[in-house]
From TrEMBL:
It comes from Maritalea mobilis. The chain crosses the membrane at residues 30-51, 58-79, 85-108, 115-135, 155-174, 205-228, 240-267. PANTHER family: ABC TRANSPORTER ATP-BINDING PROTEIN, CONSERVED COMPONENT OF ABC TRANSPORTER FOR NATURAL AMINO ACIDS-RELATED. It is found in: Cell membrane. Gene3D superfamilies: P-loop containing nucleotide triphosphate hydrolases (3.40.50.300). It holds the Pfam family BPD_transp_2. This is Branched-chain amino acid transport system permease protein. It is a multi-pass membrane protein.
C-alpha cells in the first residue's frame, strides 16, 4: 500500500463525504431523496467502470447483476433474516458474484460484439426469469427495512454515501494495485500484458466478479431506497442505458461515476419539468456515447484534461535531495547459459521465417541479434517468448526447456521482452506501469532509482503526457526493474535521438552487472550494437550467417552484403 494510494483514497473519501454533507446541509429533503439515487447509480456505474471502462470488456447486463443483489436483499428482508441491510447488502453482492464469473467465462474467448451479444442475452434471460418469479415482498408490499436510525430520507442518504465512499476507497486501492494496472494492460494489449506475466483469464474473471459484486450491492441499496421493487427496475433497457451513460461519462473514474449518476437520475426530472417526454433522455445518452466513442474522450476525461492545463508546470519532478538506491542485482546459476535456442524453425505457410536457428545468450552478457528487414528477428523473439508456440527445435531458459510453456508462464519464469511499438496503457502513471512490469516487491525509492537510471520521468507522471521515445525507454526500465534472467529488447533505440541512443547503449551494456539479467538486443542501430554487445548473431532469410564479436562480425563481407547492402566483389570489380 503506497503513499499515493493512501492519499488518493483519503481525498476520494473526504470529497464524497464533504459533498454529502453539503447536500444534507443545503438542500431540501426532496432533493436529498433524488440525490440518493445519484450515488446508488454512481455505485452501479463504478461497477461497469471496472469491467468495461478499465478492462475493455463490454457488459450489457450490469443491471441484471444489480437485480440479483436486489432480489437477495428483498428475500432476506422477506424472511426477516438477522443482520439488517448492511449484512444483506454484503450477501446481495456475494450472490451476484458467481453470475459475474459465469458471464466472465465467455469473455475469455469472446470480444467486442460477440461478448456484447452474450451479456445482452443474459440480461434478456434475467428479464424473463424476474417476470416469472417476481420480487420477494412485491405482492404483499413488505418494504425493505432500512438500517436502524437511518429510516428517513436524510438518514438513508447518509447510509448510501458512506457505502459509496467505502467502495470508492477500495476501488482507489484496487485501481492503483498491480491487479488494477493489469485490467488496463489487458484492455490495451492482451499480448503485452501476458508478456509481463499477467494471467489474462484471472484478470478478466476478477474484473467481472468484482464488478458483479459491486453492482449487486448497488441493487441492494436500490431495494432499500424504493422499499419494494419491480422487474422493470433492472430490465435489459436499464442495462443499455447504464452502458450508454458509462461510456459518455467515463465511469471508470470516480468523477465520471458521479456525473453518470446525475445524468441517469436527475435528467429525467429535468425533462419532466420541461414537459419533454422522458424517453428523450435515452436519445441524448446514446448520442453522448457515440460522441465519446468517436472522440475517444468521455466527459470526465474532458474535465481532467482541462483541469490538467491549470496544473503548475514542473509538478512531476523527482525530488532532487533524495538519493535513490537501485534494487540489488539478482544472481542466477551460471553452470548453463541463460538462454539457448537450439535448431529452432518457424514456418508461416511456405515462408520459413526461422531456419534451424541456434543462438546462445550466456549469463552476464549482452548479445546482439541483427539482420535486414524480414530476416526473422521478431519471429525468433516471438518463438522465445511463447507467442509462436508451434516452432520446431528447443528453447531453454537455464536448464529448463520452454517448449509447451505459455507466454504468461515464460514471463513468470524470467523471459521478458519489449516491443517494437510501445504497448503501455496510457491511462497508467509511470510508477503504476513499473509495478505492473516489475512486480510489487520494489520500494518507491527503488522504482525512482531505476527510472532515474534510464532517464525516465518520475513515478507520478501520467504516461499519456510523455512522448513515444520516452515510453520506449520506460518499457525497458520496467522489464529491467523486474531483474529476470533474460531480457529481450526489440529495437529499444527506435524514436531516440543520437545522444539518447548513445546513453541508452551505455545503460544496456551495464544491465548484466547492475541488475544481474542477460540481454538479447535486437537493433538496427549499429553504433548501439557496437557499444552495448559483447557478441552478435546475424540473421538473413531466417538463417544465421555470422556470429562473434561485433568488431569482427560487422566487417565480414557476407554481413556487409546481407545487412548493409555492400557487395565487396562488385566494389572490387568496379
Ligand atoms: N504473420 C506472418 N505471416 C506470414 N509471414 C510472416 C508473418 N510474420 C512475418 N512473416 C514473414 O516472416 C519473415 C520474417 O519476418 P520478421 O518480422 O520476423 O523479420 P524481422 O527481421 O523482425 O524484420 P524487421 O526488422 O522489419 O522487424 C518475413 O519474410 C515476413 O514477411
Amino acid at each position: 500500500m503506497n503513499r499515493a494510494s493512501l492519499r488518493a483514497a483519503f481525498f476520494a473519501a473526504l470529497s464524497i463525504l464533504v459533498a454529502g454533507g453539503l447536500v444534507v446541509g443545503l438542500l431540501p429533503n426532496y432533493w436529498v431523496y433524488l440525490i440518493t439515487a445519484v450515488f446508488i447509480l454512481g455505485i452501479a456505474l463504478q461497477s461497469l467502470g471496472i469491467v468495461t471502462g478499465r478492462t475493455g470488456m463490454i457488459s450489457l447486463c450490469q443491471m441484471s447483476f444489480a437485480g440479483v443483489g436486489a432480489w437477495t436483499v428483498g428475500y432476506l428482508n422477506f424472511i426477516d433474516f438477522p443482520g439488517g441491510l448492511p449484512l444483506w447488502l454484503l450477501l446481495g453482492g456475494l450472490a451476484a458474484l458467481p453470475f459475474g464469473i459465469i458471464i466472465g467465462l465467455p469473455a475469455l474467448r469472446l470480444r467486442g460484439i460477440n461478448l456484447a451479444i452474450v451479456t445482452l442475452g443474459f440480461a434478456s434471460a434475467f428479464d424473463v426469469v424476474l417476470a416469472t418469479i417476481t420480487y420477494p415482498g412485491q405482492t404483499n408490499f413488505k418494504m425493505v427495512a432500512r438500517p436502524a436510525g437511518m429510516e428517513g430520507d436524510v438518514g438513508y442518504f447518509m447510509f448510501v454515501i458512506m457505502i459509496y465512499a467505502l467502495i470508492a476507497v477500495v476501488l482507489e486501492f484496487l485501481n492503483r494495485s498491480r491487479l488494477g494496472a493489469s485490467w488496463l494492460a489487458v484492455r490495451h494489449s492482451e499480448r503485452a500484458a501476458a508478456a509481463h506475466g499477467v494471467s489474462i483469464p484471472t484478470t478478466k474473471l476478477s474484473a467481472f466478479a468484482i464488478s458483479a459484486f459491486i453492482a449487486g450491492v448497488a441493487g441492494g441499496l436500490f431495494a432499500g431506497y424504493l422499499g419494494t421493487l419491480v422487474a422493470e427496475n433492472f430490465s435489459m433497457m436499464q442495462s443499455l442505458t447504464l452502458f450508454a451513460v458509462a461510456t459518455m461519462a467515463g465511469s471508470q473514474f470516480t468523477l465520471g461515476a458521479i456525473i453518470g449518476g446525475v445524468l441517469v437520475s436527475l435528467f429525467p426530472e429535468l425533462l419532466r419539468r420541461l414537459n419533454v417526454p422522458q424517453d428523450f433522455g435515452s436519445v441524448i445518452f446514446a448520442a453522448g456515447a457515440v460522441q465519446a466513442l468517436s472522440t475517444g474522450e468521455s466527459i470526465s476525461e474532458t474535465f481532467m484534461r482541462l483541469g490538467g492545463k491549470i496544473v503548475p508546470k514542473g509538478l512531476f519532478k523527482r525530488a532532487k535531495a533524495k538519493t535513490h538506491k537501485l534494487p540489488a542485482a539478482k544472481t542466477f546459476a551460471k553452470d548453463v547459459p541463460a538462454l539457448q535456442v537450439q535448431d529452432v524453425t518457424v514456418r508461416y505457410g511456405n515462408v520459413v521465417a526461422s531456419n534451424k536457428v541456434n543462438l546462445t545468450v550466456p549469463h552476464g552478457k549482452v548479445v546482439g541479434l541483427i539482420g535486414p528487414n524480414g530476416a526473422g528477428k521478431s519471429t525468433l523473439v516471438d518463438a522465445i517468448t511463447g507467442f509462436l508456440p508451434d516452432y520446431e527445435g528447443d528453447i531453454r531458459l537455464g536448464d529448463k526447456s520452454l517448449n509447451g510453456v505459455s507466454v504468461t508462464e515464460r514471463a513468470r519464469l524470467g523471459v521478458r521482452r519489449t516491443w517494437q511499438t510501445t504497448r503501455i496503457a496510457p491511462e497508467l502513471q509511470v510508477g503504476e506501469y513499473m509495478r505492473l512490469a516489475a512486480g510489487s516487491d520494489l520500494s518507491d525509492d527503488e522504482v525512482e532509482a531505476v527510472l532515474d537510471w534510464f532517464n525516465c520521468p518520475p513515478a507520478n507522471t501520467p504516461i499519456a503526457s510523455i512522448d513515444a521515445g520516452t515510453r520506449r525507454l520506460l518499457d525497458v526500465a520496467g522489464i529491467v526493474a523486474a531483474r529476470p534472467p533474460v531480457i529481450l529488447l526489440d529495437e529499444p533505440a527506435a524514436g531516440q535521438s543520437y545522444a539518447e541512443a548513445v546513453r541508452l547503449g551505455e545503460r544496456i551494456r551495464q544491465i548484466p552487472e547492475t541488475f544481474g539479467s542477460s540481454v538479447l538486443l535486437i537493433e538496427h542501430d549499429m553504433d548501439l550494437v557496437r557499444s552495448a554487445c559483447e557478441e552478435v548473431t546475424v540473421l538473413d532469410f531466417g538463417t544465421v550467417i555470422a556470429h562473434g564479436a561485433p568488431a569482427n562480425v560487422l566487417e565480414t563481407p557476407i554481413v556487409q552484403k546481407a545487412y548493409l547492402g555492400v557487395d565487396h566483389e562488385l566494389e572490387a570489380s568496379a
